[in-house]
Structure formats: C-alpha cells, structure tokens
Design a protein that fits this description.
126 residues, mainly alpha, Globin-like, 6 helices
Length: 126
C-alpha cells in the first residue's frame, strides 16, 4: 500500500528508495559516486542528512542545519541535465511510494528546490 501520510517513516522510505536508484543511475550515479563515494558509512551519513533536510522541509522539524546551496554550488559539472534527471527520478519514486496527493506535495517541493538551486548555482558562478 502506498503511504497516505508524510511523516518521518515515509520520508525515510522515500530517501532510501530514491538514493538506491540514484546511485545506479547513469546520469546521477557518477556525481554521487564522486561526492559521497562508495563507502556504506558515508552513504548512511548522507542519507541521514538528506532525511533531516526533507523532514525539515515537509514537517518543519528544523533538524537540518546544512547549507544546500553552497554544497551544490561546489559540485563541479553539476548542471540542468542533472537537475532534470533528479526531478524525474524523484517524482517516479514519490509516485510509487505515496498516494497521489502526497506524491504531488513532494514533487512540488522538489520542483521549487531545483529551480532555487539552479538559480543559486548560476549566481555563484557569475
């Protein structure tokens, strides 16, 4: 059964499922391999950080204290193709795991994030 609520448990499921696919993705995988590596401990740390981020975004938990704009601006070669693929893959996973209304909320937040990050990166790079 798909999740009908957005809570920490369902966010965790989305994060695990999405990043499992993203690691194997031919467009996103090389970026994650370069930035996170292959080590399971490094991935566990990354997944916790991303879970905290999405929990803060979706549930206003304020658990995330990172700087996603600066982090993404430092990724050499990150561009529109990566963001487009991220949105497609993230949306597919959200649609698979959640009822339509909840998946739409995730997709809308992801769309806004992608635009903001791309604009911020463009600004940072002049």
């Amino acid at each position: 059964m798909p999740y009908d609520r957005i809570d920490d448990e369902s966010i965790a499921a989305l994060i695990v499922e999405f990043y499992g696919e993203a690691r194997r993705d031919p467009v996103l995988g090389p970026i994650f391999l370069r930035m996170v590596g292959e080590d399971d401990a490094a991935w566990a740390l990354h997944l916790r950080k991303v879970h905290d981020f999405w929990s803060s975004v979706m549930l206003a938990t304020a658990r995330y204290d990172g700087r996603p704009m600066q982090t993404h601006a430092m990724i050499e070669g990150l561009g529109p193709t990566h963001f487009a693929r991220w949105l497609v893959l993230f949306g597919m996973v959200a649609d698979r795991l959640f009822v339509p209304d909840a998946a739409a909320v995730f997709r809308a937040k992801a769309d806004k994030m992608a635009v903001a990050l791309q604009n911020g990166i463009a600004l940072a790079q002049g």
